[in-house]
Amino acid sequence: MRSLAERLARPEILSLPPFDISAQANGLFAPDAVKLDANENPYPPLDGGALAEGINRYPEPQPAQLKAAMAALYGVAPDSLIVTRGGDDGIDLLVRTFCRPGVDAVSICPPTFAAYGHFARLQGARLIEAPLDRNFDFDADGFLAMAGSDPDLKLAFLCSPNNPTGNPVEPATILRVAEALPDTILVVDEAYIEFSELESLAAEAMRRANLVVLRTLSKAYGLAGARVGALIGHPDTIAMTARALPPYPLPTLSIAAAVAALSPARRPLHAERIARIKAERERLADLLETSGSVRSVRRGGGNFLFLEVDEPEALAARLRQLGIRLRFRPNAAPGGVRVSVGNDEENAALLAAFGIGRPQPGSRRAEIVRETKETRIAVSLDLDSASPRRIETGLPFYDHMLDQVAAHGGFSLVLRCDGDLEIDAHHSVEDCAIAFGQALARALADRRGIGRFGFALPMDEAEAQVLIDLSGRPYSLFEGEFGASHIGAYPTEMTAHVFRSLADTLGAAIHVQVRGANDHHKTEACFKAFGRALRQAIAREGDGSAVPSTKGVL
Ligand SMILES: *Cc1c(COP(=O)(O)O)cnc(C)c1O
Fold first, then answer.
1. What does pLDDT average to in each consecutive run of 10 residues of the chain (554 residues)?
2. Phi, psi at residue 246, to the nearest 5°?
3. How far apart are CA 324 and CA 351, in angstroms?
4. Residue of the nearest CA to atom 14 in ligand 1?
5. Closest ligand 1 atom, residue 228 Cα
6. In this predicted structure, what is the pLDDT of residue 550?
7. Of residues 341, 507, 14, 331, the one with CA closest to residue 5
């Protein structure tokens, strides 16, 4: 029996001969094979550098490593996914695969993302508009009554959360529509789902011939400039759509950027950024609701807000003067404005433009990614927030120690290390300390408004004393002995190394003295006392502007 994809595809797609791309034979050869099959230039670019590596060669048509990483990220099998040049490209591919010009129809539910209508018109497909209801919610029954009876409705686009309004469409509603329209491919655009509480339909799409999910790395993973997204669906539908791909759709540099962004060590930092954007969305919404010129604020489930303002022209003029770009959407609603959530400075500028301004001390956050052949580490910390704390070094005892530093230091710490623990713990322990120290130094920036302190702490029979001077000059002193070689997989000799690495990268004098009988107590006392000393040293003093040195700089 013919698959749904075969029944729905354009005749031109069905009669396309398969591409003859020699690069598709990549799997048959080792990477060092003599490659004289693709008329490439044998010389890499003159300026060299890491970015240029391999760029004189054609990329893989569907880069296997990235495809596997995206399939894992979205919880689907690799043959249910094609990597596209962003979500936009996925929309274009679907329309070109399934819509005969002048005959087939595409439905959209406005106000929504403009690209669906754009690519449908470009292909000459008929456009059926089934508007959202007055609250911008999807009306499934109204939609089915309007579009459902068209025998040539090939693609129905649903955006959840919707751009620009942020409204979600419940997965159960989407599945009900898919059941009701067995001969139409329902395309669910999940470009913003990471910022919502919605369950993805990706796994469901893998099993259903008439459901396709669009994803993108542009929004949640900050890769809009790399142009990387994915189409996810039943393998038959996906294979059919892949016929419309150009021979080498993805630039090598984009593949590399996406593979790096999805490395497991960096996942906790992306999760942390997404959580921060969601929290900022709520904070901005609460504040904008207090503005007299804002009639309504929709927070929805994206990385943006949808406002309705009273005098959009006046607002536009003010924003132009201030150099702030928002997206006015008068066709979605009179006075409709879509506002992306920005970083601290951008959000403060936005609020000021609406006359809401409370000067806030600058943020003391930092993110560090440190990757070598031995370890891949990502650290994020916020000295002015006590949570979250999530530490995964691969060494449970060391996780516990670093958690003590953050807990007693009173700051948030997200740290993940994928290291060569099969060799031993040395590289992981030391490199985490280096990256942690770098992150602390970056968060402290010019070290205004902080002190220079120390702390002593007993722990049963053990006691530790830590003195810190965040002077900018590294110096490390460690006095103490350990009896055992290891605590769990953690080598006790590394404790002195950790404080030396921290002193070097943080730019601080760190003196540690420890004594007692039990190595676990002694080690834990050192880390706790370090956290406590750090807490005092990084505390903001006064208005936070004074440099704690008579020299005026640290
Ligand atoms: C941004 C966006 C996309 C896709 O963006 P790409 O950068 O092309 O991946 C898809 N759908 C919606 C609704 C969007 O807002």
1. 93 84 67 88 82 86 95 97 98 98 97 98 97 97 92 97 97 97 97 98 97 98 98 97 94 95 96 97 97 95 97 95 96 96 95 85 89 95 94 96 96 96 94 96 81 81 92 92 94 95 94 94 95 90 60 58
2. -70, 165
3. 11
4. 191
5. 9
6. 57
7. 14
- Provide the 10 A C-beta neighbour count for residue 148: 17
- At 126, the amino acid letter reads R
Tell me which H or E stretch contains 512: strand 509-515
Distance 90 CA to ligand 1 centre (A): 10
Give the model's pLDDT for residue 188: 98
CA atoms within 13 A on the CB side of 504: 12
**From atom 15 of ligand 1, which residue's Cα is the shortest distance away?**
163
Structure confidence at residue 53 (pLDDT)? 81
DSSP 363: P
Cβ-Cβ contacts under 8 Å for 134 (sequence gap 6 or more)? none
Helix (H) or strand (E) holding 336: strand 336-340
- Give, in order, the Cα–Cα distances in Å from 49 to each of 14, 35, 214, 373, 436: 43, 22, 34, 18, 27
Supply the residue whose CA is at minimum distance from atom 2 of ligand 1: 191
Residue 329: the pLDDT is 96
Chain position carrying tokens 């031995």:
374
Could you tell me which residues are beta bridge partners of residue 314?
A: none
Q: How far apart are the CA of 119 and the centre of ligand 1, in A?
A: 13
Name 454's bridge partners. 467
- Of 221, 270, 266, 263, nearest to 72 by C-alpha is 263
Q: Which residues contact residue 149 at a Cβ distance below 8 angstroms, ignoring those fewer than 6 apart?
A: none
Ligand 1 centroid – CA 162 distance (Å)? 11
